[in-house]
């Protein structure tokens, strides 16, 4: 019994520590990304982030070595969440055609929200250029491209998508075209854009 | 005769001066944009530009106050040239459908070349973010969007393009989707992309 008890408590304790660490980390990421978007990457200091996040500087340095590392971790988390969401959407749809449609729609909505979220932030663009130079982020974006390519291959097999253009090129077309959602205001506008993109994918008679 | 002679020479002279000034300015623009793409906006100095362009620093300052001004002037000239080229392409095509097709194709080719030109330059992205914050550049891009929108309106009237989506939204779709040309290698790949984008524009039955 004592043995089992000893095994049990440390596990709970470590879970609590883990949850606490994740909470602190999330606070740091949110605080830093908001500050950087508002003031620019070069103007934000570790002290400002610690103060705004309500933690000590020493604590902050236990989590991250510098502002750049925080911003990259934040963006990696964002892209990972988007990817998870797209996979979930894919797994809820019933056939190849609907899976493709649902995932493209979800991607456009993510893009619309992302741009709207940053539209009043003067340094949003600078931030975006910086993170896209990172190889982790490039890798995550490659995964999104891969996901869409696979959906397209299935949809070509099912006869829903044209077979005269390589699926990887069609995936690149989709991702670029759907980025136009950033200029759109309503869900209806986004759905119209998705419909246009899908028309471009239809088999040629 | 003396009068005509006096009127003639100064004109020639001023033309020579003008041509010389334009030549110097072009050299400055090319030199600066190459240096900035190679080393980053913050690392390039006016002295480096003067040296590489083969002119004195004092002369350089007669043309531009700082590196930022040179980079913006360079990009403005680029976008203006692209716009001129698109207008020329438009005016050479015979009907609404072909005009649209020719201009979209030319836009894709510009984009492909532009990205290829910058692909080995580590700071190409930073440069691009910087210039796109400028309102002159934003204005020039707005003009390209306007040009495509007008072509789309004509093509809708001619029955070549769908009428269930506002032309301005379709223009935005075209510009975003054609940016995918940046990943493509050959002219044939670009033509395939243009064909896909055009399929997205076709009237819905």
How many discrete domains of chain A? 1
Into which percent range does the helicity of residues of chain A fall?
over 70%
Mean pLDDT metric of chain A: 86
Largest sheet of chain A: none
| CATH fold assignment of chain A | Tetracycline Repressor, domain 2
Largest interface by Cβ-Cβ < 8 Å:
A-B, 33 and 33 residues
CA-based gyration radius of chain A: 21 Å
Work out the helix count of chain A. Answer: 9
Stretches with pLDDT under 50, minimum 5 residues of chain A: none
**Topology order of chain A in helix (H) and strand (E) letters:** HHHHHHHHH
- Assembly annotation: homodimer
Beta fraction of the residues of chain A?
under 5%
Q: What is the second-level CATH architecture of chain A?
A: Orthogonal Bundle
Q: How would you describe the shape of chain A?
A: elongated
What can you tell me about this protein's structure?
The structure is a homodimer of 205-residue chains. With 205 residues, chain A is mostly helical. The first copy, chain A, has a single domain (2-201), classed as Tetracycline Repressor, domain 2 (Orthogonal Bundle), CATH 1.10.357. Helices cover 79% and strands 0% of the residues of chain A. Chain A contains 9 helices and no strands. Chain A has helices at 2-39, 46-53, 57-63, 67-92, 96-118, 124-132, 135-157, 167-178, 187-201. The longest helix of chain A is centred in the first third of the chain and has 38 residues, at 2-39. Chain A is elongated. The N and C termini of chain A lie far apart (73 Å). The relative contact order of chain A is 0.10. The mean pLDDT of chain A is 86.
């Amino acid at each position: 019994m004592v043995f089992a008890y000893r095994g049990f408590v440390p596990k709970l304790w470590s879970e609590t520590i883990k949850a606490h660490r994740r909470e602190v980390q999330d606070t740091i990421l949110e605080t830093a990304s908001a500050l950087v978007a508002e003031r620019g990457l070069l103007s934000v200091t570790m002290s400002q982030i610690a103060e705004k996040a309500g933690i000590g500087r020493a604590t902050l340095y236990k989590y991250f070595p510098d502002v750049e590392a925080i911003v990259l971790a934040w963006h990696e988390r964002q892209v990972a969440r988007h990817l998870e969401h797209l996979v979930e959407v894919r797994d809820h749809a019933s056939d190849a055609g609907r899976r493709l449609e649902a995932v493209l729609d979800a991607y456009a909505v993510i893009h619309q929200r992302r741009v709207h979220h940053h539209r009043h932030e003067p340094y949003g663009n600078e931030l975006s250029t910086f993170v896209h130079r990172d190889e982790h982020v490039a890798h995550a974006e490659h995964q999104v491209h891969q996901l869409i390519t696979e959906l397209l291959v299935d949809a070509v097999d099912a006869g829903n998508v044209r077979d005269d253009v390589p699926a990887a090129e069609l995936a690149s077309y989709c991702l670029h075209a759907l980025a136009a959602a950033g200029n759109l205001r309503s869900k209806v506008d986004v759905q119209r854009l998705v419909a246009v993109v899908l028309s471009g994918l239809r088999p040629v008679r």
